[in-house]
Amino acid sequence: MKKILLLTLMVFLLSGLSFAQNTASVEKSFFSTDQVHSLHLKFNQQDWPYLLDSLRIQGDGYLLANLEIDGALYENVGVRYRGSKSFRTGSKRNAFNIKLNYINKNQNHQGHKKIKLSNALRDPSLLREVMGYEIASNYLPTPKAGYTNLTINKENYGLFIAIEPVDKVFLTKHYGEAEGSLFKAASELPDKMSKNCKNKIYAALEYEKDISCYMGNFEINSEAGWDDLIELTDILNNRPEDIEKVLNVDRTLWMLAFNNAIANLSSYTGQNSQNFYLYKDQYGQFNPIVWDLNLAFGSFKNTGMGSDLDLKGLQMMDPLLHMDDPTKPLISQLLKKEEYKKIYLDHIRTIIYDHFVNNEYETRAQELQTMIRPAFNNDPNKFYTTAEFDGSLTQTTGKRSKIPGLVELMSNRARFLKKHPELAIFPPEIDEVKLIKREKFSTREIKEFQFVVTVKNRANRVKLFYRPNPESPYKSVYLADDGKHNDEAAGDKIFGITVAPADGQYTLEYYFQTENAKASGFYPRNYMYEPGTTSLKELNK
Q1: For 213, phi and psi rounded to 5 degrees?
Q2: CA pair distance 537, 541, nearest whole angstrom
Q3: Which of 75, 207, 264, 362 is positioned for an S-S bond with 296, CB 3.0–4.6 A?
Q4: 460 CB-near residues (< 8 Å, 6+ apart)
Q5: In the β-sheet with 276-280, what is the strand arrangement from edge to edge?
Q6: What distances in angstroms separate CA 91 from CA 158, 162, 504, one per listed residue?
Q7: Cα 157 to Cα 52: distance, rounded to the nearest angstrom
């Protein structure tokens, strides 16, 4: 009996240890930013640098290697160089694309089958990508990014940025499936475009009748979808009143607000309309996904309108840039609608107050640089000196490239945006939200969701967005202030609405949009990830 008890205890302890290790493994994501992770590549070929150069120039294949990630070994992964502008033959600072499932289709690390390593081109701070993705992830589905030290065949290659790829794993995590059309905005135009195509529109989403014009400006990452992309551009340019049928407008406005707020011009907002993905979800809407942020925070300076901006121009860049530019229809067509314009401006306001007005970004920047400093100092192939790294927050780096310091740029930009006439007026706020519940001792069951909302700051309109579960798209309806919807007296700024659930749908997720003549706002503020929730069961307690 004692042996049985002892054996049981040992199994229990080992199970607990295994559970703790698995939990730690899950919590310590490879893209976590609380440490510098480690990657070790081992090629069997001695001439692997030449082979990788050749593959990058002449082919699309991968070179086999064994890979160790934070101590976990993976055999026969595929490796190739990535990037176009940063690639140099013979360089020890080229960016990498690593495919864990190149041979073994089920091989993955913490669910990730691919890893992309960025060399942080034109970023002496090594912060732009990590902080950019962190900020964007507060508002829309965004890849993760962290730091890793790379060694190849036991030689230290230095500090890189590891970036989560936009693939089926990413899409399933954020959209519940991965079967829709997926496009990536091309970073370069082909040498020869059809004479029927508009000149240098890049991936700006102008409407083209010739499908080859889209093929020159977008890379398709799904089996099909060109007709979907043409439909999107047709509606955006010619029937913008129907745009919500084919585009997740709110997430698009978040992306555009993010690009403008942090002066991310190597994006749709800049000269080349690049570095973003478009994914068509199961509900027929395209969703934008930000990408390639190493040139964010003013490292790339051209808006597509004239010469590069200087530091002052970046600090004072118009929040309504391209509003009247027909060659940027994703901005100009959306912002023509006053409601969308107010939402876009509120998103900019939210971003700068969440991260920059309070100087939270500076604290975060210092924290990250302190963590990566030892790895940076030991990097034999780094692009920048330790002095340039140390001054990268407060000083401009380079006489030609003139890369602004993050704090140097964003402290003044935040002040400029805070005082800008389009952003200085705050939106109306919701003071109280009530859901009508069953009265105590009453036998009358609540069968509908009845909202009563009290507002302040002169709200003219209140809109409810609601859905039965997180997998469904939101529907919307305006609340009434007419004294006929449980809202007391007409015109008293107390609004009401009743939502009847569909058969079998007894729960509700919701948020509100408030609006007056000058501004628009949302409640709760983090409605993207934490909407309000309720159920008929809860209302009938």
Answers
A1: -65, -35
A2: 7
A3: 264
A4: 428, 515, 516, 517
A5: 218-220, 182-185, 276-280, 286-290
A6: 12, 19, 61
A7: 15
Residue tagged 């027929």 (tokens): 284
Encoded amino acid at 15, one letter: S
DSSP letters spanning 265-295: -SSTTSTT--SEEEEE-TTS-EEEEE---TT
- Phi (first) and psi of residue 132, to 5 degrees: -60, -50
Residue matched to tokens 């041979």? 103
CA quadruple 197, 201, 202, 207: dihedral positive or negative? negative
Angle between helices 249-261 and 338-355 (to 10 degrees): 50
| 253 φ, ψ (degrees, to nearest 5) | -65, -35
Mean pLDDT score of the chain, rounded to an integer?
A: 92
**Spatial contact of 379 and 129, defined as CB atoms under 8 Å apart:** no
At 530, list the tokens.
């934490």
Terminal C-alpha separation, the chain: 50
Helix, strand, coil shares, percent, the chain, to 5: 30, 25, 45
DSSP 220: E
Helices marked H in 39-127: 48-58
Residue ranges and CATH numbers for the domains of the chain are: 32-163 (no CATH), 177-424 (no CATH), 429-539 (2.60.40.10)
pLDDT tens figures, 309-364? 999 999 999 999 999 999 999 999 999 999 999 999 999 999 999 999 999 999 99
Q: At 471, which amino acid appears? A: E
Dmax (CA) for the chain in angstroms is 87
Provide the 10 A C-beta neighbour count for residue 326.
11
Asked if residue 299 lies in contact with residue 275, where contact means CB atoms within 8 angstroms, the answer is: no
